[in-house]
Write a structure and sequence with these properties.
Blueprint: H1 24-27, E1 34-37, H2 38-41, E2 47-54, E3 65-66, E4 71-77, E5 79-84, E6 87-92, E7 96-99, E8 106-109, E9 116-123, E10 129-132, E11 137-142, E12 145-149
Antiparallel strand pairs: 1-2, 2-9, 3-10, 4-7, 4-9, 5-6, 5-8, 10-11, 11-12
Length: 158
């Protein structure tokens, strides 16, 4: 069994090895994003925590809504545009936002000239699916792995 650390400097955690799990047509939207999966380092299984850095011009994700997973973000540095079904809201260091499962679609956009750094926290409830209302894309978590589909149900090829 691998020994888990007692504590770490979050910014020194290893980044996720694959920058995006989106199919090729969509991966460019998050180019430059760096996620450091903190929860995994401690063996957490009920929820995930990422320390995420977005350079100027990058997005956190495609605008999306989870069916089962609640999400929460807390901004540590910089300013972002939170885009959701209600429109755009500026968020900056010290601000937070939450997204209830089954609620509206959302994403963060770094439209500024400095990096944005934030924590994102989400549960890992089984059976989650994701809708991307602006794109021909849906996702389902099948046996712990995300699988992507066109809205007509046709799978995206890996």
């Amino acid at each position: 069994m691998t020994k888990k650390p007692a504590a770490i400097v979050a910014a020194e955690a290893p980044p996720r090895t694959k920058p995006s799990i989106y199919p090729a047509p969509f991966a460019a939207s998050v180019a430059g994003r760096v996620k450091r999966p903190l929860g995994d380092l401690f063996g957490l299984t009920n929820f995930g925590i990422n320390l995420t850095r977005l350079p100027p011009g990058s997005a956190s994700a495609l605008r999306h809504a989870h069916s089962v997973q609640d999400e929460f973000i807390y901004v540590l540095e910089g300013t972002a545009t939170l885009r959701d079904d209600a429109g755009d809201t500026l968020v900056s260091a010290g601000m937070c936002a939450g997204f209830k499962a089954g609620g509206g679609a959302h994403q963060l956009l770094n439209l500024g000239d400095q990096d944005l750094v934030y924590l994102e926290i989400g549960d890992r409830a089984p059976g989650d699916s994701v809708d991307y209302p602006d794109d021909d894309l849906t996702a389902r978590n099948i046996d712990g792995a995300w699988r992507f589909f066109h809205k007509d149900g046709t799978p995206y090829e890996d």
